[in-house]
Design brief:
Two copies of one chain form a homodimer. The first copy, chain A, is α/β, with parallel strands linked by helices and 336 residues long. The first copy, chain A, has two domains: 4-175, Stage V sporulation protein AD (Peroxisomal Thiolase, Chain A, domain 1); 182-335, Stage V sporulation protein AD (Peroxisomal Thiolase, Chain A, domain 1, 3-Layer(aba) Sandwich), CATH 3.40.47. Chain A has helices spanning 52-70, 91-100, 113-126, 141-148, 202-221, 237-252, 263-266, 282-299, 316-320, and strands at 4-5, 9-10, 17-25, 40-41, 80-85, 104-106, 132-139, 164-165, 168-175, 182-187, 230-233, 260-262, 279-280, 304-312, 327-335. In chain A, the strands form three sheets. The first copy, chain A, has a seven-stranded mixed β-sheet, with helices on both faces. In chain A, helix 1 (52-70) packs across helix 2 (91-100) and helix 5 runs parallel beside helix 6. The longest helix of chain A has 20 residues, at 202-221. Chain A is globular, with a radius of gyration of 18 Å. Chains A and B meet through helix 2, strand 6, helix 3 and helix 9 of A and helix 2, strand 6, helix 3 and helix 9 of B.
């Protein structure tokens, strides 16, 4: 009675419940088309803090506490906190775990961290180790830009394939019992490398990971794309999205043209907000999943969704040393 | 029939088996008192690679493949790979996962990652999600020094409380069935902050996390320190070790003076090898656990051990911004 089905997919015996979620957004994201689905929109990037790094922590904690409050739970009632972010040594998550005072496992999956956390939360709850697990992640445009690229003040010209790191955070609370949509399948990704070296084209570097994980999910579960009302990738942007559609066809014969969207493209009005190829960052899939999608699932507007979050696993050092950009994608199926 | 006992401890229903392990060491570590317990000792820090970062990856992969070989397992037979390291964006682990091609969850717990990985592997196997999980971690003196502090070539004077980052890697293979010592308890740490800001005194910053997790483990399980043949911390060094002994007494009334050692102090002959306060890094607890301790458990020289690995969750950025150094500690009980 293995809970592993096929090669990379895991099916909980009794699908855990996503009993609560919350998403908070930065000022620019708060002007986007999903603005009505955020629990809080910050009016400035510093969020009242002295540094952008502290602001990101404030955002992650706001999402976490709002998520707990909605479920009527205190941090002391939560068995485990799973979190990760893009900052070196994942300081947003570590310092947030300090304030939450919940036993903590730190994760690093770059922008795949949102679904890595939700996947592990599902497995730990269904494995009988926890009744309540809080999963959270965040990203911040200014902290990410100055760490990975250049301080914004440099005014460096951006390429058309470049994406805009999303400012915001999301959190979800996974429980053994309760009301809400259930997490029915988890597909854990392998790291892949398709030879992309351009750090201004991360969508294309991550698209093969997305396509392979989606194809594997369909093969492992026997559920084709039609099974889902909506299939989402995390932050591939427009170039990564079109590449994913092509690869899903060429690698698995699956048609993603009907019900597939990318969270990074949903957050912004790409006609009006200049984000080049779209949004990126751990926050993208977390804000869309824990803000917009969760409400749609509760309302019955969506019944079955598959969220596939991708992460680029390079670092500035690996890039400078001439390495390719490896990527990973974890997919989580949520059903109302 | 919860698998959670007390506040932070998790007890698998059927304790998973550590069926294999391996440890590899850098040249300096290979001159230390545990030299006979490593599977491979490198003769130079570059390990035949072009960069120190690639060398660290080579070491982690060597430990991983050696561990698999000893168990007669191929990577394709392994359900999940859990790994993390100290480098920004944990590139050692991500690039290793690419070569292993095993579905991968990336972790970040600084030097607590060794036991974070082993704890999660235990939970995922006992939860029914995997038959075989490979957990691994690494550190490298030169990659860590130039990332966290200064390139070695600067010749910066070191403080007496400073520790020496260990070069090496370790891997363990956790299985549902098989021969070997079993993982009987896991205590997941909370992040704590005792106000230390000195990045040259990480042992003291991490000691409170070690003491609190050990005290919680004893309280949750009802097993006092006497239950174990040996209790280990990961890389506290001599100042952190003595502080842990004091805090275990003052916070819990437990006597750690009889059977407690620190992995960072075991790796080097501290009389002959100048490592100031001792060794540190993810590799420290991994090399001692997966090299020395595992063999002692197989030989019956040790029957019950408790490995408590600590991690300092700061970053150069958080330090420069005046933040304290928060720390965490995860403890894993292994019984022959």
């Amino acid at each position: 009675m293995s809970k592993k089905i096929g090669k990379q997919t895991f099916r909980p015996e009794k699908p855990p419940v996503l009993i609560s979620s919350a998403a908070v957004a930065g000022p620019f994201e708060g002007q986007g088309p999903l603005k009505d689905y955020y629990d809080h929109i910050y009016t400035d990037l510093l969020a009242g803090e002295r540094t952008f790094e502290s602001a990101e922590k404030e955002m992650l904690l706001n999402a976490a506490f709002t998520c707990l409050n909605k479920a009527g739970k205190a941090p002391q009632e939560v068995d485990l906190f799973l979190a990760g972010d893009l900052l070196n040594q994942t300081i947003t998550s570590g310092f947030s775990a300090l304030e939450l005072a919940i036993p903590y496992f730190g994760l690093y999956g770059a922008c795949s961290t949102s679904m890595e956390g939700l996947a592990l939360a599902t497995m730990l709850v269904d494995g009988g180790f926890a009744d309540l697990v809080l999963a959270a992640t965040s990203s911040h445009n200014t902290t990410a830009e100055r760490q990975y690229r250049y301080p914004s003040e440099y005014g460096v010209h951006r390429k058309p394939t470049a994406q805009w790191t999303v400012t915001g955070a999301g959190a979800g609370l996974v429980a053994r019992e309760g009301e809400g949509p259930r997490i029915t399948h988890v597909t854990v990704g392998k790291v892949v490398d398709f030879g992309i070296k351009d750090v201004n084209n991360l969508g294309s570097a991550m698209a093969p990971a997305a396509a392979l994980t989606l194809v594997q999910h369909f093969a492992d579960t026997g559920h084709g794309p039609d099974y889902y009302d909506l299939i989402l990738t995390g932050d591939l942007g427009k170039f990564g999205q079109s590449l994913t559609i092509k690869l899903a066809t060429s690698r698995g014969g699956f048609d993603l043209t009907k019900n597939y969207r990318d969270c990074g493209l949903m957050i912004y009005d790409t006609q009006r907000q200049d984000v080049h190829a779209g949004g990126s960052g751990c926050g993208a899939s977390a804000m869309v999943t824990y803000g917009y999608l969760y409400r749609k699932l509760l309302q019955g507007k969506l019944k079955r969704i598959l969220v596939a979050a991708t992460g680029a696993l390079h670092s500035p050092t690996s890039f400078q040393q001439g390495q390719d950009i490896p990527a990973i994608c974890h997919a989580v199926a949520i059903e109302a």
